[in-house]
Amino acid sequence: MLDPRPVGYVIGLLVAVLGLLMVPPMLVDLAEGREHWPVFFESAVLTFLTGSLVALACQNSRGREITIRQGFLLTVGTWVALPAFAAIPFMMGATQARFVDALFEAMSGMTTTGATVFAGLDDLPKGLLLWRGILQWLGGLGIVIVAMLFLPIMRVGGMQFFRSESFDTLGKVMPRAIDISKALLATYIVLTLACVLTYIVLGMDPFVATVHALTSVSTGGFSTSDASFSGFSAPLQYACILFMFLASVPFVRLMLIGSGKFRPLLFDFQVQAYALAIAAAIFLIFAMRVIMGDPLDEDMFRHVAFNVVSIFSGTGYGDGDVTLWGAAPLVVLLAVGAIGGCTGSTGCSIKVFRYLILFKALAAQLRLIGSPNRIVSPRLAGRPIEQDVIESVMLMFTMFILTLGLMSVALALTGLPFMEATTGAWTAIFNVGPAFGELVGDSGALSAFPDSAKYIMIFGMLLGRLELVVVYVLFTSTFWRG
Amino acid sequence: MLDPRPVGYVIGLLVAVLGLLMVPPMLVDLAEGREHWPVFFESAVLTFLTGSLVALACQNSRGREITIRQGFLLTVGTWVALPAFAAIPFMMGATQARFVDALFEAMSGMTTTGATVFAGLDDLPKGLLLWRGILQWLGGLGIVIVAMLFLPIMRVGGMQFFRSESFDTLGKVMPRAIDISKALLATYIVLTLACVLTYIVLGMDPFVATVHALTSVSTGGFSTSDASFSGFSAPLQYACILFMFLASVPFVRLMLIGSGKFRPLLFDFQVQAYALAIAAAIFLIFAMRVIMGDPLDEDMFRHVAFNVVSIFSGTGYGDGDVTLWGAAPLVVLLAVGAIGGCTGSTGCSIKVFRYLILFKALAAQLRLIGSPNRIVSPRLAGRPIEQDVIESVMLMFTMFILTLGLMSVALALTGLPFMEATTGAWTAIFNVGPAFGELVGDSGALSAFPDSAKYIMIFGMLLGRLELVVVYVLFTSTFWRG
Ligand SMILES: [K+]
Ligand SMILES: [K+]
User: Fold this and answer.
1) Which sequence spans correspond to the domains of chain A?
2) Which superkingdom does the taxonomy of this entry point to (chains A, B) (predicted)?
3) Contact B371 A401 (CB under 8 A)
């Protein structure tokens, strides 16, 4: 039997922390003076008390080692419980959201997807805008910890390729988990502060800068305005491109910058491949637009670069209507969203390194089929790729594609048109943010989607953020019998 | 070094045979009296002579065993050389096609895709209509031979799962290849004749019945009329459903029906899964249309069933505008096209058994991740699935998806709108036939597509029909060195 109490203890603590994190929005609301602060006060009390009670109830399990199976349960449980509580302010607050919309917004926040059901953001109380930013920031932090500590030992999606760079067994991890999380948190906070300061220096209002920094470094993409990033100046857009890029490279490399070591970042095979892929996508779309006769200037280049990095990193800030660029750039952007950034970052989607492994494995097997007598072992970054890693990566890729297909069908079944159904599935599974089609509001809000579609997307965002496997494992019978 | 002469010998012979096959259209044209017969006369002479000369030039290699590598070259060479010659009548004849259109039509024929660039079929000389049917019939025959004799020993796409049912090594195959091909040919001819007779009995004109039989049993989908199958009666449509189904089940099973053995067909795991999947898709789309308020009657059921089987089998006969049914049925039909029929048939696409293996492998690895101490070995049809098979299947699935993505991008780059680019890539890669969008003519003709898009689709049809791997292998450097 799986003992749920150690899991309950940690989730209880995290829910309590979530309650404490409702205090800053409360203070902001208090300062704004729109009488909106009681929403966060009541939500905070409710959330903190419930979390504390659960933690207390499971307290006798404190300090017990968490097994791998409990690790899965903990990960999924966290991304279900926290959004559920995080949704409360959206239901009680000025958004007056129904349960499905509130949960959608909270899940979109915690999974750093950034799809929203709210239009008219500019008029919302500042507390709610900050709350959306905090959710994404927290979700980004959470996923980096999961990716660094848990996924490699869980053998999920070929993450064991990075095992040597992290830790071999759960036994070795747990004692250092706190230390690593602290170092990570410090890096994340420094990156966030650097982002806030840059945005302020370049002319953003301090509150707006804070929220956008929270959603930039988490590759979340929530904004304080319906105009999203199209309303900001050119220097701010370039700064945002930089921070979206930094947020989607491995945080273990970013950590070293603090001690003046830039080489590990610059020479990381993932970072190099990622930068190259970004450059290629920008060049491709830029060239297409030039061929189609769009004016060749800095403005056009910047919008292309912004959107490519926004989608590649999985941030998803809006910057103009990219569907106006024509079908080819849109298809490239959709493909870019299905690739995504580097593993060990706040970025999402299938990730660059998995494509590298796929291509290496495909080439190796083609060579084997063509000349069966040669022994071929695919290598990446100077290391042989173990069979185990290849299988896990192919498994994950296959799951992503099949899930994308099934979710497109499911969304179409709710009555969504073709474009909305396919890009809705794409944005949910790959945690990108924007969806395309006529049912998508001018501000990018998905409020017109039917409730059933919203529930499907909520599940899709959860699936995608936890790299599918972590959720799907819970649906195997042996997991519970184990 | 790879000796190309044994390959050249066989391809030369096949081209000569293709020349002989231009005689029936010539006779039909002669009988019709529209002075169109010289087109086929000249084409036949040119094709027969060229093929014979090539065969003669390579004659000293006759009887030499063909190696696996030569097998790849032979397969790809056949599907490049034959369409090139088969295109001649389209250039010289009443269609007055430019090279790209003629090659498109011929490749679409030989790969049994069935996408056409010609509108106004009803007015074409009968010889050309018959020629299109012959090309699909020949392509269907060719692919079954390749699938039964070559693919299992080539370790392509998990076909080695069926090795025990076929033959272990090339050495064992070659002596029996002629016998097997003969038995296969007999079955194929009987199936075709049964189809012709059924269509005639149910009221089709004998010539129209012949062409449609040729394109039914090959799951090709070319028609003699712009109306395709929407112009035929209900009994004819049901008959067509039956023959499209039979053409997409394993021919080794069909062969046994001749000796009165129905059980191997009925109890084949592929056939059962395939039939189940068809029933599910029909039920799903039927239910959707009922919910959307379409009249619930035999007519509606029949059109749903016809289109599902037409796309599932990869035949692609038109029967009304399915895009009018709404987004959900369209997405289901697109998914259905990405599944396809049974291996060892004339059907195309990824194929049902590969999905079965994928699901089994995914479930097994999920169980392994959830409870690492259990030993799990996936099984299918009572047999363990070897690791080798799983890898090949995942490889092929990954290749299909990546190729589909790249081809969508490439088609969008030619200027095709989103729907045309994605469904164009889909129809080419999976050899289905129809594409959707405003640039597709009322009759389904793709004549308005830019030339660059047509060339990309020509390559896509070749790739898809030869299960990608067979073509991609030729692009590895070791293949040519080895
Ligand atoms: K995002
Ligand atoms: K077809």
Assistant:
1) 167-482
2) Bacteria
3) no
